[in-house]
């Protein structure tokens, strides 16, 4: 084995794992006080659920064997009878490659949790996460990242998860939101973020972890890993500043939530292209992805009427779609010689661009159809949404019997004191009369 590549990939795997608690802080800070515990638990629980699923059947279904270019087989449950010490092309053991891919299987379903906070039953969500991993995520991994996959065979390029992770999670978020319907307190949600410092903390952890996500997808220490690190940084910074200027120009005020959202859009947009594009390509992808997501979140979302609570589709879906298609425009063999052809802007014609558009459309259609099938199936055995009483109470108390804050608000103390004074005003008249002089 290559000790350098192994060390690098262990670090990359840990960084990708770090993203999931980071996402819990990001989403937990954005929701209302009544749903903080539920939101953070719904995200963080995937670290346990996805690891178990991946070991039992996930790796085998994703990378072992082939059925029609869509899914693998179940010949290695619990990864038994696999030579985990066999070396891949970059001289890392198969066991380490599986560990790295496992971390993607954790973060991807956690992403769409943000769309459904505050109104979905935890048991329904848990079963959906399991069914979705098996019926949607593992097939997507096989389609794009297995050499036998249908999308891989037509030449689809997806460096670190534009189709597999972001379009997949984003479209799932949209479908779930459509079936759930709008929140009862839909109108007042923007004014009830629980903890903005958490949003910044979560965004920072995600950005740091994303280097494991993107650079790690080079599967070793090489020029492509370095390029992915640089392009990730440039696209993210560009997206952050783009959202900032859009907010200042159109709304008159810069916001922390806006800057953090723009940062995320840049990270998402560059993911499929990170190891294939130049620094200038990364700049344009970051900017274009942010324009697309900003327009969707601020204009199209209300017109469509689907209540995606934390804009999981607006960020991951829209920026993921733009990034995936833009890879067909900006990819160049001068950055990555493994490409069969250049993108449209680098003299490669429409070949790669056409493939990327086709793969993006196939991903959207497949995920939408399978998402609807899973939801309909689960609705036959349990309700999807909490009742209105529990929704108003908040899912923290209703579903879990816990609260993010146990302290009584100071404002409540003040209100109680004032009401006592007004209630017993006559008793205090004699004692306080002299104070008037």
Approximate helicity band = 55-70%
Give the overall pLDDT as a whole number: 92
Number of extended strands: 0
Query: Uncertain regions: pLDDT < 50 for 5+ in a row?
Result: none
Overall outline = globular
How many helical stretches? 17
The helix/strand order is HHHHHHHHHHHHHHHHH
User: How would you characterize the largest beta sheet?
Assistant: none
What distance lies between the first and last C-alpha atoms, to the nearest angstrom? 89 Å
Which class do the helix and strand fractions yield?
Answer: mainly alpha
How much beta, percentage-wise? under 5%
Whole-angstrom Rg: 24 Å
Detailed description of the structure:
By secondary structure, the protein is mainly alpha-helical. Helices cover 66% and strands 0% of the residues. It is built from 17 helices and no strands. Helix 1 packs antiparallel against helix 2, helix 3 packs parallel to helix 5 and helix 9 packs antiparallel against helix 10. The model has no long low-confidence stretch (mean pLDDT 92).
Q: Which SSEs are present, and which pair or pack?
A:
Layout: H1 3-30, H2 36-44, H3 46-63, H4 94-111, H5 122-145, H6 150-153, H7 162-180, H8 196-214, H9 223-250, H10 256-270, H11 279-304, H12 312-330, H13 351-379, H14 388-393, H15 395-400, H16 410-423, H17 425-432
């Amino acid at each position: 084995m290559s000790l350098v590549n192994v060390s690098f990939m262990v670090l990359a795997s840990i960084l990708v794992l770090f993203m999931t608690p980071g996402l819990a802080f990001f989403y937990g800070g954005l929701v209302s006080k009544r749903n903080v515990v539920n939101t953070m638990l719904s995200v963080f629980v995937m670290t346990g659920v996805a690891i178990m699923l991946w070991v039992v059947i996930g790796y085998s279904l994703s990378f072992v064997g082939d059925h029609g270019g869509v899914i693998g087989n179940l010949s290695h449950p619990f990864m038994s009878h696999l030579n985990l010490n066999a070396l891949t092309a970059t001289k890392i053991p198969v066991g380490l490659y599986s560990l790295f891919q496992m971390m993607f299987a954790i973060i991807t379903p956690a992403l769409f949790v943000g769309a459904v906070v505050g109104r979905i039953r935890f048991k329904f969500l848990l079963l959906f996460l399991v069914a979705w991993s098996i019926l949607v995520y593992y097939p997507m991994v096989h389609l794009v990242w297995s050499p036998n996959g249908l999308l891989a065979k037509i030449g689809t390029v997806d460096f670190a998860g534009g189709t597999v992770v972001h379009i997949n999670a984003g479209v799932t978020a949209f479908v779930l939101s459509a079936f759930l319907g709008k929140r009862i307190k839909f109108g007042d949600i923007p004014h009830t973020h629980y903890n903005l410092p958490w949003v910044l903390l979560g965004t920072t952890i995600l950005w740091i972890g994303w280097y494991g996500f993107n650079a790690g997808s080079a599967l070793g220490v090489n020029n492509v890993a370095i390029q992915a690190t640089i392009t990730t940084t440039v696209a993210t910074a560009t997206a952050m500043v783009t959202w900032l200027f859009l907010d200042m120009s159109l709304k008159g005020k810069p916001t922390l939530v806006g800057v953090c959202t723009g940062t995320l859009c840049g990270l998402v947009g560059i993911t499929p292209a990170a190891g294939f594009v130049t620094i200038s390509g990364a700049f344009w992808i970051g900017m274009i992805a942010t324009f697309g997501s900003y327009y969707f979140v601020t204009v199209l979302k209300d017109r469509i009427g689907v209540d995606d609570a934390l804009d999981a589709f607006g960020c991951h879906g829209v920026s993921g779609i733009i990034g995936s298609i833009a890879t067909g425009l900006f990819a160049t063999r001068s950055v990555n010689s493994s490409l069969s052809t250049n993108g449209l802007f680098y003299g490669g014609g429409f070949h790669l661009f056409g493939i990327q558009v086709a793969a993006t459309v196939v991903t959207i259609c497949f995920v939408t159809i399978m998402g609807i099938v899973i939801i309909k199936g689960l609705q036959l055995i349990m309700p999807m949404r909490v009742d209105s009483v529990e929704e108003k109470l908040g899912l923290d108390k209703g579903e879990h019997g816990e609260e993010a804050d146990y302290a009584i608000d100071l404002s409540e103390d003040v209100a109680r004191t004032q009401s006592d004074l007004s209630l017993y005003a006559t008793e205090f008249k004699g004692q306080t009369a002299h104070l008037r002089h």
